[in-house]
Design goal:
The complex is a heterodimer of chains A (471) and B (448).
Chain A (H helix, E strand, L loop, with lengths): L1 H40 L4 H6 L6 E7 L6 H9 L6 E8 L5 H8 L2 E4 L12 E7 L5 E6 L5 H11 L4 E5 L3 E3 L3 H5 L1 H5 L4 E10 L4 E3 L2 E4 L6 H23 L10 E5 H6 L10 H15 L5 E12 L5 H21 L10 H16 L1 H18 L4 H28 L7 H13 L4 H18 L14 H4 L2
Chain B lengths: L3 H6 L4 H45 L1 H6 L5 H4 L2 H17 L2 H14 L1 H11 L2 H14 L4 H8 L5 H14 L5 H9 L7 H11 L8 H6 L5 H8 L8 H7 L5 H14 L4 H8 L5 H14 L5 H7 L5 H11 L6 H11 L2 H13 L2 H8 L6 H13 L4 H9 L3 H13 L11 H5 L7 E5 L2 E5 L3
Antiparallel strand pairs in B: 1-2
Helix pairs in contact in B: 2-5, 5-6, 7-8, 7-9, 8-9, 8-10, 9-10, 10-12, 11-12, 12-14, 14-16, 15-16, 16-17, 16-18, 17-18, 18-20, 19-20, 19-21, 20-22, 21-22, 21-24, 23-24, 25-26
Classes of the chains: A alpha/beta (471), B mainly alpha (448).
Chain lengths: 471, 448
């Protein structure tokens, strides 16, 4: 027993140490990369990029399922994006509310006999509509597929541009976000096959007519912690991994992909729980198997603002779903592990995800248990116990504050002193009880996946316009 | 009294953890301190910047005319940078007279010389900043300095040198860029080079022709692509020569250029390119024909509508749909091809560009209704009835709904006849006209 507790505690210590050290190294890399990126941006004039005839067309695909509250504002905002060659495809995924009626009424839609080839599998399309007032808009009305992937596939089949950008209907894209995300693609269209932008938390911000007016921090504690999580995940995690071309996720809320490649891999997998990670892993697999030189980029300055769960129940569902999505993809691609054919993805990217993402909640719960038992039984000295807890707390806080620092020195969206102070404060407070709740939600996700429960549970939304007034 | 270090050493293995805790805490303190100090510094900096910016903008005329003495802003780095920034912003949007005046000030104030000096003397970030400013100055003196920077060992500096040469928009700046490219494919992204050349060669694209002739197979497509963006009738003969180039990308660019040239001889050359073995050359040829907007292009385009490549078919349909006046003949010609894919692509496109709603509305216009009816009937016969049925159910004008109903009835398509009952159910309040069917004939009858 004593031996088991000692081994378990030592394992937990090193697990924590390695996990935080990896993040610390990623933080340093991200600081250097962000500074270099900022410097490079100084020589890029976006208005020139916009006027360039060499800029490739992009099809925006916006899947919408019961989005009556935001769909019109969101579509309007996508249509006014600052990009010269744009096609917006809204996919109504069998909504049972007034999503389709609102679109039809607002954009004066007419059914068309558009010809397209169904290359990516999806549920039957009822009709494709064009707008009589917005030539850039197409609306695909299809039967509910039960997943975002199914809806995106329908849009992918209809899309006519060489690049597709997948967005959530409850997101707001900054005006120049598309121009910015296309910069690395334009610079190297042969190698850069996909690029992801940064997703930020919309809750608390002031929105009018589908446009972001003022960035403010949300009021509820767990919304602020989600802001820190997003900063850490994108500004440190994605930026750092992308540096080694080991990016496994491009957020489903905002990413650009080469359409021909997405079609080559069969589009999104309709039964995927985490369609975003699934697609990127399959792209890696496809390109590695075909010995292609490629890059999957993360671009930190194009911003997509998205509504995050504003009640704990929705948050729990979302996190459980993310966990299920990760396990699903990693399990399906387990044959890529430690195979030289898949290079660094097989040796580093996927193993890291297994150990520090999928197993994390299990290791954490075992750790909590054994460490407490060891402390009670006196196997571990009380000093060591408290110091160890203190170290875990301090190092994790350091990483979180590092993410806030990155935000401060680079993109600086939160200008108000009070917001920054609250962000820093919550870097200290996120470890209890949020971290433990998060662990439980992820364990629920694992349990649900093992039971075969992969049903999608909707998140409660409050809509764009009510972001401030609801508080 | 024992020292802190001896106390710590007594902790045995825990001392390592304690050191880790202390280091983490120190890190947190440093980061917080940095955030705080940076915020305070930036707050003050921007306050000062705004104050000085307001002063310079309010006295801008005085600054450029020398009424505000140059020494008053030259010696302060912040002021000097602001004057340069305002000046370069104004230069970008100035008319020729204003640009002359500002350029004169740029030279006389010493701002230009200072940047030339910095670009030659320094390396790294300072050189890159100088190069960026020089590019925006758009005067010929900057070209030798920017060309020298193309030899810089740092890739980022070379990239900025190319961008800056392009930003000058001067024809003379094209020469060093092309020479740089001709030395072998550069490590700078092709689109960056092309964008720079596009700006420099806008006035005289012909300058690229001799270089294209000299370039190897790897570089020729890059230069031809630039030429493809703008061309004039006077270089049409050279362009036609390029349509027989062995590299497909060059042929595609030649097609694109011919479209811009609007030359009388272009149609023939493009018609040949429509039969090119490479699909993207055919695609470019089709697009170029669209740019010419010449009805002589219709027969080869109808042929291209039957292309084996889907993208070519779709693009051709898009081009053909722009010939609004010739729409009935085109539709007839497309139907005669008996190619289902071609017909689908064409109908889908005319729906997409909004031609069908226009035709439906034309049913209410005595002058246009006969032609509109012919086209719509052809559409119905080809199976494209979705929009017409939509109009039958939802069109706000009863007379047009009735006309559509007659067309549907006359179409001989039994699958559609049940749809004729639906309008009455859908819009009972608007029923000023009742459509009654007798066999395949629809009659309009005003209710009592």
């Amino acid at each position: 027993m004593r031996l088991f507790l000692n081994v378990s505690n030592d394992t937990l210590f090193f697990y924590y140490l390695i996990s935080n050290l990896v993040y610390f190294v990623l933080l340093l890399i991200s600081l250097v990369n962000s500074a270099a990126h900022q410097r490079r941006l100084g020589s890029v004039r976006l208005e020139r990029t916009r006027l360039s005839p060499l800029i490739p067309p992009v099809s925006l695909i916006v899947p919408a399922h019961n989005e009556e509250r935001t769909i019109v504002e969101a579509t309007e905002s996508f249509l006014t994006l600052d990009y010269p060659e744009l096609e917006v495809i809204v996919v109504n995924d069998g909504s049972i509310d007034d999503t389709m009626a609102r679109l039809r009424q607002h954009f004066k839609l007419l059914a068309t006999d558009l010809v397209y080839v169904t290359e990516a599998p999806c549920k039957p399309v009822r009709a494709v509509y064009m707008s009589t007032i917005q030539p850039k808009l197409l609306v695909v009305d299809k039967e509910a597929g039960g997943s975002k992937a199914d809806a995106v596939n329908a849009g992918l089949n209809v899309a006519s541009s060489p690049y597709i950008c997948v967005l959530d209907a409850d997101s707001i894209l900054e005006k120049d976000a598309l121009l910015r995300i296309m910069v690395p693609i334009q610079n190297d269209p042969r190698q850069v096959v996909a690029a992801g932008g940064i997703v930020r938390v919309l809750n608390g911000a002031r929105v009018s007519q589908g446009q972001l007016q003022e960035v403010r921090l949300a009021k509820q504690w767990f919304e602020v912690i989600q802001v820190i999580e997003y900063l850490r995940a994108f500004l440190i995690g994605r930026e750092g991994w992308a540096n080694f071309n080991l990016l496994l996720i491009i957020s489903g809320a905002f990413g650009v992909f080469r359409r021909d490649l997405v079609r080559q891999v069969g589009g999104y997998r309709p039964d995927a729980i985490g369609e975003d990670i699934d697609l990127v892993v399959r792209l890696h697999r496809h390109l590695q198997e075909n010995d292609k030189e490629y890059r999957i980029h993360f671009v930190p300055d194009p911003v997509c603002w998205t509504e995050v769960p504003s009640d704990l129940r929705s948050l729990a569902r979302q996190r459980a779903r993310w966990q299920k999505g990760s396990i699903d993809v990693l399990w399906r691609n387990r044959d890529m592990l430690f195979r030289s054919r898949y290079g660094a993805i097989g040796w580093l990217g996927l193993p890291y995800h297994w150990i520090f993402e999928v197993f994390a909640p299990m290791i954490e719960i075992i750790g909590y248990t054994t460490i407490i038992i060891a402390a009670v039984l006196g196997v571990m000295s009380r000093q060591y116990f408290f110091l160890f807890l203190l170290f875990g707390y301090a190092f994790a806080t350091l990483i979180s504050i590092g993410a806030v620092l990155l935000e401060e020195v680079t993109y600086r969206r939160y200008n108000d002193w009070r917001d920054v102070s609250r962000l820093v404060l919550y870097c200290f407070l996120e470890h209890f009880p949020y971290r433990q709740l998060h662990m439980i939600w992820r364990l629920q996700g694992i349990w649900q996946y093992m039971r075969g429960d992969i049903a999608w549970r909707p998140m409660k939304r409050i809509g764009f316009e009510s972001q401030r007034s609801a508080r | 009294m024992p020292s802190v270090f001896s106390l710590v050493s007594r902790l045995a293995p825990s001392r390592y953890v304690l050191w880790a805790v202390l280091l983490s805490a120190a890190g947190i303190g440093l980061l917080l301190g940095f955030i705080l100090l940076r915020r305070v510094y930036r707050h003050r900096y921007f306050q000062r910047l705004n104050r000085r910016m307001a002063f310079l903008r309010n006295n801008w005329e005085g600054v450029t005319q020398g009424i505000v003495p140059t020494e008053s802003w030259w010696s302060k780095t912040l002021d000097r940078e602001m004057v340069e920034s305002i000046l370069l912003d104004q230069l970008e949007n100035a008319n020729p007279t204003e640009a002359d005046r500002l350029t004169k000030f740029l030279r006389s104030s010493g701002l230009l010389d200072r940047r030339l000096f910095e670009a030659r003397k320094y390396r790294g970030g300072r050189r890159r900043n100088a190069l960026l400013s020089l590019g925006r100055m758009r005067v010929p003196e900057v070209i030798p300095v920017l060309s020298e920077a193309l030899e810089d060992p740092d890739g980022e500096t070379r990239l900025i040198a190319i961008r800056s040469l392009g930003r000058t928009g001067l024809l003379e700046a094209a020469e060093p860029i092309v020479q740089y490219v001709l030395r072998g494919l550069p490590d700078v992204a092709a689109t960056t080079v092309q964008n720079a050349l596009l700006r420099c060669c806008q006035e005289r694209p012909a300058i690229l022709l001799p270089y294209i002739a000299r370039a190897d197979d790897a570089v020729r497509p890059l230069l031809a692509r630039v030429l493809g963006e703008f061309a004039s009738a006077d270089i049409a003969d050279d362009l036609i020569l390029l349509t027989t180039d062995k590299v497909a990308e060059v042929r595609a660019s030649a097609a694109r250029s011919l479209g811009f040239s609007k030359s009388a001889v272009a149609i023939g050359a493009l018609a040949r390119l429509i039969e090119d073995p490479d699909w993207f050359v055919r695609l470019r040829a089709v697009a170029a024909m669209g740019q010419m907007n010449d009805p002589r292009a219709i027969p080869p385009l109808v042929a291209a509508l039957c292309d084996e490549n889907r993208l070519v078919r779709l693009r051709t349909a898009e081009v053909l749909s722009r010939f609004e006046r010739q729409l009935p003949e085109i539709l007839r010609a497309v139907m005669l091809t008996r190619d289902e894919y071609a017909l689908q692509a064409f109908i889908s496109q005319i729906e997409r560009v909004g031609a069908i709603p226009k035709l439906i509305n034309a049913l209410g216009d005595a002058a246009k209704q006969s032609e509109a009816r012919k086209v719509l009937m052809n559409l119905l016969k080809s199976g494209a009835h979705r929009m017409l049925l939509d109009a039958l159910a939802h069109h706000p004008v009863g007379r047009i709904r009735a006309a559509v109903a007659r067309l549907v009835a006359q179409s001989d398509d039994e699958r559609l006849l049940p749809q004729l009952d639906e309008p009455r159910a859908a819009q009972p309040s608007e029923e000023q006209e009742v459509i009654q069917l007798h066999g395949h004939e629809a009659q309009k009858k005003v209710p009592v």
